[in-house]
Design brief:
The structure is a single chain. The chain is an alpha/beta fold. The chain folds into 2 domains: 141 residues, D-Maltodextrin-Binding Protein, domain 2, CATH 3.40.190.10; 105 residues, Periplasmic binding protein-like II (D-Maltodextrin-Binding Protein, domain 2), CATH 3.40.190. The chain is 34% helix and 24% strand. The strands form 3 sheets. Strands 1, 2, 3, 4, 5, 13 and 14 form a 7-stranded mixed β-sheet that branches. It has a 5-stranded mixed β-sheet with strand order 10-7-11-6-12. 34% of the residues are buried.
Length: 282
């Protein structure tokens, strides 16, 4: 009997261990489900608003802040967090392909229009022949910057342009501009030394620029060409239809959050509500 008791105790302990190992970061406590969302940057105030909206749905939304663009995806893939919201659909698709991750977009959030800035010229037409224009050098943003320069009619691109492409895909450069790729975080700092710079919204804000009025030219959020740069909420693919996760998406896309973004950002970011099916393969 003593031996059987020992065996039963061992089995019971094993069940408890396996149960603990199989649980992920989403947990329930007294009818309330804790869901962890990873973000990057200074959006805590915005997500605090979403937090309050889903509280009545029995969801305790816990905000986890990251300081880079790698950990939020790897943490999502390994189950350390349940959702993340920090990246464009194009960046997510490329990152999960490069790192073999099984994550998916479940809802759209905002688009942060990229702009062409200058401290030397007032109009896009004023940029002279031979001027240097800096652009981000990372795969996603380099292609985005080149498309913006083409939209501004400063250059034209090859017909089969790859959105992840580089300067070698410039077809025509009538002003003989020196298009110089540099680290994205350095583009705003380069303004003192160059004719113009293509700057991501976040870095422009950090540099004290106002994306709503300072660019000589910027992306049109309603243009189909801007769709690859819509930001998304992502989940592990196996959880993409989780009802509570979709309630969080719905809360983010609510009028209250929309109005808050418009008031806070003054055009620096623009709320976007679109079907994930339309953009999931961009």
């Amino acid at each position: 009997m003593k031996r059987l008791s020992i065996i039963f105790a061992a089995v019971a302990s094993l069940i408890l261990v396996l149960g603990a190992c199989s649980s992920n970061s989403a947990s329930k406590d007294g009818g309330t489900r804790t869901i962890k969302i990873g973000i990057n940057g200074d959006d805590n105030d915005l997500w605090s608003l979403v937090q309050k909206q889903v509280k009545d749905d029995g969801i305790n939304l816990k905000i986890v802040s990251f300081s880079d663009y790698v950990q939020p995806n790897t943490a999502l893939n390994d189950g350390s967090i349940d959702l993340n919201s920090f990246q464009t659909i194009t960046y997510m698709n490329q990152f999960k392909k490069d790192h073999n991750l099984d994550i998916s977009a479940i809802g759209s959030t905002v688009i942060a229009p990229m702009g062409i800035y200058s401290k030397k010229y007032k109009k896009i037409e004023d940029i002279p022949d031979g001027a240097t224009i800096t652009i981000p050098d990372d795969v996603t943003n380099a292609g985005r910057a080149l498309k913006l320069l083409a939209s501004a009619k400063l250059i034209t691109l090859v017909d089969n342009f790859d959105p992840r492409g580089s300067v070698d895909q410039i077809k025509d450069n009538p002003k003989h501009l020196n298009i110089k790729p540099i680290a994205a975080g350095q583009t705003a700092r380069s303004l003192e030394d160059v004719g113009a710079a293509v700057i991501n919204n976040g870095f422009a804000v950090q540099a004290g620029l106002k994306p709503s009025k300072d660019p000589l030219y910027k992306e049109d959020p309603n243009d189909k060409a801007a769709q690859p740069y819509i930001n998304v909420i992502a989940a592990a693919t196996k959880n993409k239809k989780d009802k509570d996760f979709l309630k969080i998406v719905k809360a983010y896309q609510s009028k209250a959050v929309h109005d808050y973004i418009i008031k806070r950002d003054k055009g620096a970011t623009v709320p976007v509500v679109t079907s994930i099916d339309k953009i999931k393969n961009l």
